[in-house]
Amino acid sequence: MSQTPLPYRAHNHRAxxxxxxxxxxxxxxxxxxxxxxTRERVxxxxxxxxxxxxAYDLLGxxxxxxxxxxxxxxxxxxxxxxxxxxxxxxxxxxAFVGCAHAGHRHTGFFLICRACRNVLELSAPQVAAAVDKxxxxxxxxxEDTTLEIAGxxxxxxRESDHD
Amino acid sequence: MSQTPLPYRAHNHRAxxxxxxxxxxxxxxxxxxxxxxTRERVxxxxxxxxxxxxAYDLLGxxxxxxxxxxxxxxxxxxxxxxxxxxxxxxxxxxAFVGCAHAGHRHTGFFLICRACRNVLELSAPQVAAAVDKxxxxxxxxxEDTTLEIAGxxxxxxRESDHD
DNA sequence: GAATGCGATGTTATAATATTGCGTTCATTG
DNA sequence: CAATGAACGCAATATTATAACATCGCATTC
Lengths: 163, 163
Prior knowledge:
homodimer; alpha+beta; Arc Repressor Mutant, subunit A; 47% helix; globular; DNA-binding; WH-like_DNA-bd_sf (chains A, B); iron (chains A, B); Ferric uptake regulation protein (chains A, B)
């Protein structure tokens, strides 16, 4: 784990995918959950892309590989992966990304570049704390937080300066 | 209808809807935008419900009133209302709510009760600040923030205690 | 008053996303 | 090995959203 490489930073992508898969195996093993071939393949596709993938993107990729998959196949795999904290759903995009902190408790939080479509997952305790505090002041019992920030990543800001 | 409680607080609902419509008229007037009958009716339906309404809920309501509306009619009205800050889209629900702070600059932020489905919109500067800070630390230029918190409102927490 | 431009609306079709239900297969365990 | 339950295949359908193009009404201008 540690040192998780990020979209905005060059990294050895193959290694990063392998690491994610290895983590997933470990996590599922510990949870007595079955990381079946389809589930693993879906997770791998998501990590390979490193950008949010829609369910039907995944479906298309599986179809190309000869797996005769229907929508439920993909949605079930995604449900499983979400339940085990291996992927996140980005509500504002109807798409899925690999979880950068699988296995850790965290309130994820996403920076979504509208230009290059990369997504950076942060785990910012001070943000989570501010949110919890605001909720508590209303007597609200928070269970699940969706926090997605669209904008421009550093690289794409430079790009748009050139115009 | 009647007596639909404003999220977590009793209030005169008819007056609350009227107020929202009056505000909307003023805001559109100031912006030289046309709050046409369909747009106004959609906004009114949203406020009357006081809970998130889906586009097809609205479509159904319009149909019942004899308006022969197709999906684009509703989506266009919703686009207009969003652009003028009169409604918000709740990404995690694919639904729409009236904006509680129309006309004010704000980064909205929603507490969504999973039991009664009421939504409370907050404008919490300290949360917005924490989010901006975290984004800036990554060099990310934030443009649009989606912050939606699902959980249980105070009333529904008491309900579930009774079980 | 005809011509023009333009925002709003109507209409049809279709795209994109997601779920239900049911029967079958397969791994595990007793 | 039989029973169990999770996972999967498959067909159909539900839900959410957009594209493309025609039309209407109204203000401006000639």
